[in-house]
Design goal:
Length: 211
Amino acid sequence: EESELFGSAAGKSQQAKVLLRVTSNLDTEEFPSGQKLESGLAYLLGQGMHDRNTGSKRPGLRGNVTLRCVWRHDALSNEQIEGLQLAVQALGLLGSLGARARKGFGSLSLQTLRKNDTELPVPLDQAQLNAWLKKISTQCNITEQPPFTAWYSGSRCWALPLKPNGSANSAKALLNEYGRQMMNYRLSDKSTIGGIHGRGLFKSDSRELRK
């Protein structure tokens, strides 16, 4: 189905039915290189991206990204168009770009979605996001766990009610609070980093690591 929409060079090669165009203005530095970040952010970045003495090793960028999908009106079925629309929503609500994407950095936040000249609804709060997640869970007809990262009927999502210190609209504050809670969850009960004392939930892991 992916090859049908976006083309493929494998096997019997075929041209894409959907053309994608991305424009962006990721030119606002969220934090510059060399800036020492708060403990939660530094923990999520890890040693490869943040040094305790010299700070961040790479600047974080912030800005807008626009994805435009174009196809001939007779090229796609209604079912394919609905699936494409759902995939774009998933990219904007669950997706991320760049380094440390799995730790929350580079997260995308869907702002607007249009089909031709019609503006489509976008989840604006936690209740609407939960409803959207339930919707795609019921629409997903893949019941066996895929051999790669993909959504299937057994997938689960949690919307965490994090309350960061500082501005509620700050991505940095939210990530820092997430990192602080991850530290509290994963550190041993004998470890304290940045004022965070570990809960000691994985003592067997710590023993194996010391071995």
